[in-house]
Hints:
Blueprint: H1 5-19, H2 28-35, H3 39-51, E1 55-58, E2 64-67, H4 76-84, H5 107-125
Antiparallel strand pairs: 1-2
Amino acid sequence: MKLSMKSEYAFLALIDLAANYSQGYMKIAEITEKRSIPRKYLEQIMLILKGSGYVKSRMGPDGGYKLGMKPEDISLAEVIRLLDGALAPVLAVSEYFYESSIIEQSHELMEVFSDIRIFIANRLENTSLKDLIPLNE
């Protein structure tokens, strides 16, 4: 698994939305300014997140973006799978994105990479946006 810049930006924006969850909608300009994310790029990311139900948007002076579900209900694994695909280091051990690979010729290598996938998946599945909200926010 390699986290893309798209996922990195998405996580920063989602953490801000999670921290602001009870206050309602947040302007995209607030996020882009705070996190130094290019606005057009963040808008594209937010469209993907909105299409998957992770965020909602509203137009107008009181509009912006907010989480589409509770911060504790969004795991890091879900977001990574949406934006970057498999959590596994090789697709031959991926649970959701399996593809045959030459590496399958070695049972020992498959076992190592499978163990890595299990560790990564467990950690990311059990970490939610709520866990990432800074204490001072």
